[in-house]
Amino acid sequence: MACWDRLLAIAPAGTLTVADEAAVEAAARLWAKIKTGFAKSSDYSMLSKYLTSLGLTPQSRTTIEVPPQHAEENEFAKV
Predict the structure, then answer these.
(1) How far apart are CA 60 and CA 72, in angstroms?
(2) Which residues contact 27 (CB under 8 A, 6 or more apart)?
(3) Which residue, 23, 28, 38, 36, is CA-closest to 7?
(4) What are phi and psi of 44, to 5 degrees?
(5) pLDDT above 90: residue 1
(6) Higher-confidence residue: 20 or 76?
(7) Of the chain's two ends, which shows fewer C-beta atoms within 10 Å, N or C?
(8) How far from each other are the two terminal CA atoms of the chain, in whole angstroms?
(9) What is residue 79's predicted lDDT score, i.e. its pLDDT?
(10) 17: closest CA among 45, 59, 49, 53?
């Protein structure tokens, strides 16, 4: 699974928006760089900052408000 897909899969549902696209892309690129063994120590630090800002660490996840998921309204349910 690509790093981009993995980040989206582990993000709490409903927390990422289009405004997070650049941060998710940067985090995915850093994660891929780390996984391939070509990362510098500063890459680990930057990845940690991105993951924290996106609510993808245990501590930062506690500060993220997840909007309630609304099921699509069935137009025939009221009939």
Answers:
(1) 30
(2) 3, 7, 47, 50, 51, 54, 56
(3) 28
(4) -65, -40
(5) no
(6) 20
(7) C
(8) 44
(9) 58
(10) 53
Both tokens of 21, joined, read 């696209």
pLDDT confidence of residue 12: 84
Quote the tokens at residue 57. 């660490």
Q: Which amino acid is at 59?
A: Q
| CA proximity to 11, closest of 72, 68, 49, 64 | 64
Q: Which two tokens stand for residue 34?
A: 């780390």
CA distance 22 to 70: 27
H-state helical runs in the chain: 3-10, 21-35, 41-53, 58-61
